[in-house]
Please model this.
Amino acid sequence: QAQLVESGGGLVQPGGSLRLSCAASGTIFRFYAMGWYRQAPGQQRELIAAITSGSSTEYADSVKGRFTISRDNAKNTVYLQMNSLKPEDTAVYYCNRNPAVWTWGQGTQVTVSS
Model:
């Protein structure tokens, strides 16, 4: 079973940027498609960005053109570069396989507010 540790969240003003990281251990990371998910207060967790083992990517319409998912298999890490952040991006962000079959990590809080 993999262990996932997300980091890089914080408080940022609208229009700002953040880069999230997710380190995976206990698994052969490079074989798996991965995703970034988020959960806003009172809402269900949703998949917003996905990357295959071959580094093909897909995005939810809500983040397309603003967020970029990438991976470094040597570091067992997946990243989410978030630009042009909006208040509606406020959520706890998680990574997992796509589809999500591993135990969730603690997530990292992203708050977009002036």
User: Anything to note?
Assistant: The mean pLDDT is 96.
